[in-house]
Description:
It contains five helices and no strands.
Amino acid sequence: xxxxxxxxxxxxxxxxxxxxxxxxxxxxxxxxxxxxxxxxxxxxxxxxxxxxxxxxxxxxxxxxxxxxxxxxxxxxxxxxxxxxxxxxxxxxxxxxxxxxxxxxxxxxxxxxxxxxxxxxxxxxxxxxxxxxxxxxxxxxxx
Length: 142
């Protein structure tokens, strides 16, 4: 190969072993980039617990049947786990006290979900019966 200055650089053909070395070097470089990109991250901040401790205050861990569908699992994570505690809806609307509707029962999240569908408007949650009752406060909903 000739360059404008007149120097010639010999070019040997690339053989199979050269390609293996090139691929190995490229894979190592890519792995290094990926490992560097995954490391560290943004700093985190410890947040204080809400008043009352949050979570399952006053309730035992759930040991009933697993959620049968993805919808039941989302209900369990987003609504049921927050309302089943004894200091909230679970104080009355459970299988032991028996106040209907028993959407906060602790023995079976699948049954709790089925009951919750009778008081929740999934299309317009703000219009749900359960939302209206909570809005009335503890005095008004009973």
